[in-house]
Q: What sequence folds into this?
């Protein structure tokens, strides 16, 4: 798989349920960022988790990072119809010890929350 | 909340024409980026810019592309002679400084080359 691959590719749930999306990557990273994109719109930053962190929370969002498995997960609790969007993980990797913010994005997970 | 703004939101251009996409990054940010997303595909890195010069560029960013920060607020992407395959959403992004800081993206500019 390529750097920053999410699964599942598509997820369909009912309002109120939790949604879990996973991301795997191949190279070492400085940090991993999750973004949301509504159809045809810009990328909205959700959470940044650094390589020395294991878990972060922001409202209904919980992100975990397992650097030994090179994987991350995004959990959205108590989902709402308005959470319907594509979700991307993006890795920021070291480049000669200096990161220039060159993010590598995955293909994304399309989340549909039915009211 | 401060945001990255981009213009135009959508541009249609003839193949071979020059296009300039404009961006106003978040003020006090030091690092600037352009990314693109071809319809249905991944978001791809094009170029990063710091201290008035290109820090890194991808294979996509060939001689047809250039970036400029003409003043203290604008950051532009120029495509000299557009091709059909340049049709994509182009995102500008900026970051405050240092590795490990959030990268904020604009709403994007849809470029359609016909």
A:
């Amino acid at each position: 798989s390529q750097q920053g691959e999410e699964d599942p590719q598509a997820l369909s749930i009912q309002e109120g349920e939790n949604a879990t999306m996973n991301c795997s990557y191949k190279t070492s990273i400085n940090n991993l960022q999750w973004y949301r994109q509504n159809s045809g719109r810009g990328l909205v930053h959700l959470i940044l988790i650094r390589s020395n962190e294991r878990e972060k929370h922001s409202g209904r969002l919980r992100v975990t990072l397992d650097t030994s498995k090179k994987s991350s997960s995004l959990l959205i609790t108590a989902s709402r119809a308005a959470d319907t969007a594509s979700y991307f993980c993006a890795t920021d990797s070291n480049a000669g010890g200096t990161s220039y913010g060159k993010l590598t994005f995955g293909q994304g997970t399309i989340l549909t929350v039915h009211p | 909340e401060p945001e990255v703004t981009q213009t135009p939101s959508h541009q249609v251009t003839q193949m071979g024409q020059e296009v300039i996409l404009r961006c106003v990054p978040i003020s006090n940010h030091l690092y600037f980026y352009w990314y693109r997303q071809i319809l249905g595909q991944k978001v791809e890195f094009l170029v990063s810019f710091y201290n008035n010069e290109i820090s890194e560029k991808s294979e996509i960013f060939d001689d047809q592309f250039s970036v400029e920060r003409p003043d203290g607020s604008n950051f532009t992407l120029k495509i000299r002679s557009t091709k059909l395959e340049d049709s994509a959403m182009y995102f500008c992004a900026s970051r405050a400084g240092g590795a490990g800081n959030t990268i904020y993206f604009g709403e994007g500019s849809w470029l359609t080359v016909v």
Remarks:
- DSSP finds no helices and eleven strands in chain A.
- Chain A has a mean pLDDT of 89.
- Chain A touches chain B through 27 residues (CB under 8 Å).
